[in-house]
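Quick one:
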Amino acid sequence: MPLPETAQLSISVCRSSSRAEMVAHPLPRPAACPACAVPLPETGHAAPPPKDAIILSLPTIHCAACISAVERGLNAIEAVKSARVNLSLKRVVVETSADIGAGDLIRSLAGIGYEAHELDAALLADSDTDRTGRNLLMRLAVAGFAMMNVMLLSVAVWSGAEAATRDFMHWVSALIALPAIAFSAQPFFTNAVAALKVGRLNMDVPISLAILLAAAMSLYETTQSGQHAYFDAALSLTFFLLAGRYLDHRTRASARSAAQELAAMEVPRAIRLEGEKETIVNVGELALGDRVLIKPGSRVPVDGRILTGESEIDRAFLTGESLPVYVGPSTPMAAGEINLTGPLTIEVTALARDSTLQKVAELVALAETARNRYTSLADRAAAIYAPGVHLLAALAFVAWLWISGDFRLALNIAIAVLIITCPCALGLAVPAVTTAASGRLFRKGILLKSATALERLAETDVVVFDKTGTLTLGQPRLIPDPVIPPNTLAIAQALARHSNHPLAMALAMGADPADLPTLTDITEIPGHGIRAILDDQEIRLGRSAWTGANEVPETATYLKLGNQPPVAFAFQDEIRPGVSELIKRLKSMGQQIEMLTGDNRHAAANIANRLGIDNFHASLTPEAKAEAIAKLAAQGHKVLMVGDGLNDTAALTRAHVSISPASAIDAARTASDIVILGQDFAVIADCRQTAVDARRRIVENFSLAALYNLIAVPFALLGFATPLMAALAMSASSITVTLNAWRLR
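Output:
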């Protein structure tokens, strides 16, 4: 019997390759449309989902047509009150009545060609709103509005306004500037205070000091009817730096914790058996020794041991094994694995908080903390620049106080030195380059998620690849064998059409049903294969032991026709487009190439030989992958990790920098610094070259800022830097840095 629809879908819930899409989509997927070319921007932030809403991840949606199809399909269900799709997060929030569950919605989406799996709404409730971006944009708008108004008022002063007119303009400027600075510059003040509390200087310290002193001295000059005020310079500095910080924020996705995303993938509910009664309970309510029913197509909610039943399970998310694995009584099961063919009853051996999935999440959280210690080029520059600027301003103050004896003049010159030494250019040096580089990479189908991703990518010397779904597409492809007669192939394809096993689907692909023989009494035996009757004789398609065949070295399924000798149909995994070219280019860049996989050694050796990878390790657990990355790091290597599965998340986070394809599961994409939108991996080499170029531009920008300071600082030290000169100098340096950065485009 063919698998129920729930199995057809859930086979691919945790598999990130396009083979998963083949398994999950028995119907044709929606045709591409012009809107598929790029992700649609979010027009706003939705309110938090209702407490009882069901949230489904939709990894295969692409465009406006997809949104319409999903929402229309779900809203057609009588028990669905509303369905709202978020394209950026690739999720749908569904409000339903109590008599429908997530499984029903998943099956309905599978029927219209969309893969889906449930996420825990409670764990994701606070993670979707981009509060930082909105906060920065609001402060930027206030600073820009205030800056323009104060500059308009300053025109009168610069034009020669005197006495009462000048004082009036200064007071109006103060009324506009001081509240705007107090509000807009808060991000710099907060970061500066945080750095000073731990005895460290960052770029925000001189920025904050320049803004505060400029505002304070301007207010003092205004009360004393002074000729010069720095309100416009202080606001310009605030505006330009907020613009750089907002651009920097927008170059990457709103970063949710990978550990939280992993936790959200846990199955929120389970079917507990109480005698013969089936009760749906929250996973947290399960106790050790409870019996849990795992239906075909469902994910395992907790770690356990099989009591009754036989089936095949998809554990690629945890081990990277490219093919389903047979399980029977006493076989251990891990949370998150997919039951494919037969119902299983398991005994709970670990609570939800101690599950294998939770341990992986803890590994990722630990690795995230370690990687966040990376010191960016901007912070390293600030460590040198900030003390120098403060010392120079202090020396200017002391020198002019000693020369003139005028405290007011000495303080004015010291403030001019602080402003004109251009923390603005240095503050823009990195975000301007990152923004230009991200635009160039986006046109190539590459998204940057981390502010320091390019800096770290330029430093790597070892590239580590996962196998299944990364180097390969995870799609088994039939190897043509001229020895097998066409009629034998047709019989095998006729039988394979009635199974959702990945090898069976690969075997049946491209076959015309009209050319295939008619079979009767078709039955699928969980864990073994599928059998039927043809011309009064039994035929079988499945495992070697079940068909009485001698195993061949390749991945294969076997056909048994009555009493005839079994026939082997061999398969090989398809190499992802661009991978061969990528490995050659990376080697030419001096990168060491390695492969880490949870698949068996034979499958790993086959792919390594085809791609020319000398160093590979097979049969690795997620912990072992992360340890392998840590070992390379301990040897002084900077590692780039490329992976796509749940079993790669800890390694992705432990690496110096990480990349995943858009087809990866949510947790892997979230753990990665860079996401590749297309199938062709050759662009990774372009990405690294862009990273090297970007690092060079950042260093050039720092050099330009330093050169500017060498020219401008003497004017400030000699007392020639008026507020107008300071504002113009800041603008000129910022434009120069930005133009140099845009050479990357």
